[in-house]
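Long-time lurker. I teach an intro course on protein structure, and each term I like to show students one example going from raw sequence to a predicted 3D structure in token notation. This year I'd like something fresh instead of my usual example. Would anyone be willing to generate the tokens for the chain below so I can use it in lecture? Attribution to the forum is fine with me.
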Amino acid sequence: MLESLVIEGGIPLRGEYRIHGAKNSALPILAATVCRGAVYEIYDCPRIGDVFAMEAILHAMGVTTRWEKDCVIVDSRGLERTAVPRELMAEMRSSVFLMGSLLARSGEAVIYRPGGCNIGKRPIDIHINGLTQLGFEVCTKDEEVSCRGACQGGKLTLPYPSVGATENLMMAALAGRGDTIIKNCAAEPEIVDLQGFLRTCGFQVYGAGTDTIFVRGAQGSALSAGPAEVMYFILEDRIEAATYMAAVLGSGGRALFRNIRAEYMTETLRCFERMGAAVRAADGCIEVWSLGRLKSPGMLITQPYPGFPTDCQPQLLTLAAAARGVASCILGWFDEKKLQAL
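-- Reply from a regular --
Happy to contribute to a lecture. Here you go:
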């Protein structure tokens, strides 16, 4: 890791850039390789710290991985343990996804309340309550969370469209004795991507991208009869795209971004245009450029997809610092009374 970066400013950013696979798809998909023992080739997987942290957790559980350029090959047939090491789980919040995949594979899982988040408390109560409603026995002691049992199926409604809880419950329901319907789901493109991966593995999951997801209980059939080898290409990273686009616009430059679809970035691109930027999109490419000094976007409220993404709030406020006028951004998951007070 580099200890420091030296940046020489005052130069507009110009050129072309290809967007990598989405981190927020890669992490739950890597966790999902545990759902059934097989060999997985996952293409366009980003080589970043969170992915390496998930790799380390998989290694500790008996799963092997190796890289071939941007493809990570995962062999989960040798899974040996169903407890996620505490010291590794503390490094990354997304390791909580392993709770659902381990329950689908083995009917038991032991995790610890995850770390890896610096924006404040983000409890996993929605995950735990959902698993309980599906028929799993969940016990918590201090920071340890242990689960066992089998999904009984049925209907449950999430109190908030949590991305992580939606993905965890999708995986936990895969080997259910009955079918599961999850309502008030998050609708992010990365959830659609996880559904695509699970269906490639032989599971029956439908409805991702809407507020209702249906999971057919496999009762062991898909766990044993699915393909021995799975190839999958990860969705492009809309957050990475927004980050580089903000840098281009903030420097007064112009750039073409490949491997990114505008329909996944509607609210972000609208915000850039509202600030006075030019945007042109076609055939999986987006070009952005500055038409002069930007203006403030005004007040933004982050919301679940398809609203303005919370993960783009830092980039937007940094860009707004170079624009004319006053900008503010409010996290949409705040309590309504807090919003009114603001």
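Some talking points for your students: The first strand starts at residue 14 and ends at 18. The two ends are 40 Å apart (CA to CA).
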